[in-house]
Amino acid sequence: MQIVQYPHPTLRHVSKPLKRVDAELRAMVGQMFELMYAASGIGLAANQVDLPYRLFVLNTSGDRQQKELEQVFINPVITRRQGSAEGEEGCLSLPGLYAEVKRPEKISVQAYNLQGEEISADLDDLPARAVQHELDHLNGKLFIDHLPPTKLMELRDAIREFELEFDSRRQRGEIGDDQSLRARLLDLEQLRT
């Protein structure tokens, strides 16, 4: 398991709801936390590790020692949005790229945890922003999709570098073609969705 970088096709894949949680999925979640911490992140969506499932992990402290702050959101849904706030965002699939993104300031979210229990929370500030960012991933969206055209123009060269690196890795055979990646995602979906 590794974090895929833009413009990997799985990042644009709309994830499917999970219908079952098993030991293998729990192990995947553990790996996702490890990758997130290794990359100095605070959240990581399944799409970012080339999995087609509606789940993400979060620890807004970013500190692996604070295990009590670790959260797993399975099949998350935002039920309420309120206000508006702008804040800086980055993404582990676009490392080194940061921009101000406008999002609702407060949200209510419902999801399931790894034990299959329904959870709900009213969030604001960084937790609200992080949940919205990760939920966007599950819908095939990236934080750059929220940027105005002028800001995208400023980031154009950096984004193009990611595209060139992806094309190079694909030419070297390190990344499959879109058809084989799509087939793999469909196979994975049939296991748990």
Summary keywords:
single chain, 193 residues, alpha+beta, Peptide Deformylase, five-stranded antiparallel sheet, 7 strands, globular
Corresponding CATH superfamily: Peptide deformylase
Spatial order of the strands in the main sheet?
1-2-3-6-7
CATH architecture type = Alpha-Beta Complex
Strand residues, percent: 15-25%
N- to C-terminal separation? 20 Å
Uncertain runs are none
Following the backbone from N to C, one meets helices and strands in this order, namely: HEEEEEEEHHH
Helix and strand arrangement:
Layout: H1 23-38, E1 43-45, E2 55-58, E3 71-82, E4 85-90, E5 98-103, E6 106-112, E7 118-124, H2 125-138, H3 149-171, H4 178-192
